[in-house]
Write a structure and sequence with these properties.
The chain is 17% helix and 31% strand. The chain is an alpha+beta fold and 112 residues long.
Length: 112
């Protein structure tokens, strides 16, 4: 469904989640990334969702990021209380050495 490239994004995201859960997420960031990875406990229980290639013309969240992939994080916000911010999406940039995180999107949980 996602092809070999999409599978790489899923794999990179699973690695990022494992690293972020233990505080090692910055090793996955692009050199110019200003991504906010937040607290390690917010990454526990997350899973890689569905990757999609970024089209800068239609992906407003990616403006100026030079991102090539976006993937949602499954399980974000489950079991959290209203008002808590959780990571929901990751933007990657393709580089010569592979994928690196250029940004993480956060949303506020609204249980209501």
């Amino acid at each position: 469904m996602w092809g070999r490239d999409g599978a790489r994004v899923i794999d990179a995201t699973e690695q990022l989640i494992a690293a972020a859960s233990s505080g090692g997420q910055h090793a996955h960031a692009c050199g110019d990334s200003a991504a906010d990875f937040g607290d390690a406990d917010l990454w526990d229980g997350l899973g890689a969702g569905e990757p999609e290639q970024v089209d800068p013309a239609t992906t407003l969240d990616a403006a100026g990021l030079d991102a090539t992939w976006r993937i949602n994080l499954e399980g974000a916000g489950i079991g959290e209380t209203s008002g808590r911010e959780v990571p929901t999406d990751v933007f990657y940039r393709e580089t010569e050495s592979g994928l690196c995180v250029v940004d993480v999107i956060w949303h506020t949980v609204d249980v209501g």
